[in-house]
Specification:
The chain is of the alpha+beta class. It has helices at 3-17, 23-37, 40-46, 53-63, 69-79, 86-104, 109-121, 124-131, 137-148, 154-165, 172-186, 202-216, 247-259; strands at residues 189-196, 219-226, 235-238, 241-244. The chain has 13 helices and 4 strands.
C-alpha cells in the first residue's frame, strides 16, 4: 500500500466520522465499490491525478446520481484524495462501506465477524463454495443470508454477503479477518485473537485485555479460541504480531535446538 493510499484512507475515514450514515449508506458504498471494480475506465478516471478534484467530483455525480446525497458526498470525498492505483480506490471504497456498516450497526460487528470466520473455518465445503469462481455472486449472497439468519445482525450480514460477492480473487477468511479489523478500528478497538487450551475466566480475560491495552494502546477486543494444541500457556495474535507463550511453542523450540 502506497503512502498516498494510506493518507487517502485516513481522510476517507475522517469524512465518514462526520457523516450521518446508516446501513443504506453502507449498501450504496458497497455497490459503488463493485461498480468501480467492474469498470476500469471509470476507475482510471477517478484516480487520474491530472484531473482536478472538481472534475472527479462531477464524474461522481454523473456516475452515481442514483445514490443518496450522503453517499455521493462520501464518494466525492474519497475520489478527491490521491490513490496509488485503481485497485486501491476499490479497496478504499470497500473499507469505507465496512466502516459505515460498523458505525450504523448497534451490535458488536467485529465479534460477529469473528464467529462467522469460525463457522467457515470449521466447514471446508462452505468455504470452498463461497470462494469458488463457478458459483454466481447472487447465490453466494443468498447462501450467506440463510446461514446468518438469526445468528448475526443486519450490518454483519451485509458486510459478509457483500464481500463474498466481490472477492476479487481473495480468500474468504482473509477478507473477513480484514473486515473484522476495519470494524474494530471504526469503534476505536484493536482485535486480539487469544488461543488457549481451556477457557479464560472473566478475571483472566479482564487482566489480559488490560495488559494488551497498555501494550498496543486503546481498547482491546478479545476473540477467544479454544485450541488443544496450545497444551498450556497462551498464544495471542494482534494483526501480524504473534505473542506465543504456550508450552507447545517452547517444546517445538527445544526440539529445534536439539536438532540443530
Amino acid at each position: 500500500m502506497g503512502s498516498a493510499t494510506t493518507q487517502a484512507l485516513a481522510a476517507s475515514a475522517s469524512a465518514l466520522d462526520a457523516a450521518p450514515v446508516d446501513l443504506d449508506t453502507a449498501r450504496e458504498l458497497f455497490a459503488a465499490s463493485r461498480a468501480v471494480a467492474g469498470a476500469p475506465a471509470l476507475s482510471g478516471a477517478l484516480t487520474d491525478s491530472a484531473a482536478t478534484a472538481e472534475n472527479r467530483g462531477a464524474l461522481v455525480s454523473r456516475a452515481f446520481g442514483a445514490l443518496s446525497l450522503v453517499t455521493r458526498g462520501l464518494i466525492a470525498q474519497v475520489v478527491s484524495q490521491r490513490w496509488s492505483s485503481g485497485d486501491d480506490l476499490v479497496s478504499g471504497l470497500e473499507e469505507l462501506a465496512i466502516r459505515a456498516a460498523a458505525k450504523a450497526e448497534a451490535a458488536d460487528v467485529e465479534a460477529e465477524l469473528f464467529q462467522v470466520v469460525r463457522i467457515i473455518s470449521a466447514n471446508p465445503q462452505l468455504e470452498l463454495a463461497l470462494g469458488s469462481r463457478l458459483g454466481g455472486s447472487a447465490k453466494k449472497g443468498e447462501l450467506i443470508g440463510s446461514l446468518l439468519q438469526g445468528r448475526a445482525s443486519e450490518g454483519t450480514t451485509l458486510i459478509v454477503s457483500s464481500l463474498v460477492q466481490q472477492s476479487r480473487g481473495r480468500r474468504v477468511r482473509a477478507m473477513l479477518n480484514r473486515a473484522m479489523r476495519i470494524a474494530a478500528a471504526q469503534r476505536g478497538r484493536t482485535v486480539a485473537t487469544v488461543y488457549t487450551a481451556a477457557p479464560l475466566s472473566p478475571v483472566q480475560s479482564e487482566r489480559l485485555a488490560s495488559a494488551l491495552s497498555n501494550r498496543y494502546g486503546g481498547e482491546i477486543a478479545l476473540n477467544p479460541v479454544i485450541d488443544p494444541t496450545v497444551v498450556g500457556g497462551i498464544r495471542i495474535q494482534v494483526a501480524d504480531d504473534v505473542i506465543d507463550g504456550s508450552i507447545s511453542s517452547r517444546l517445538a523450540d527445544l526440539r529445534q535446538r536439539l536438532a540443530g
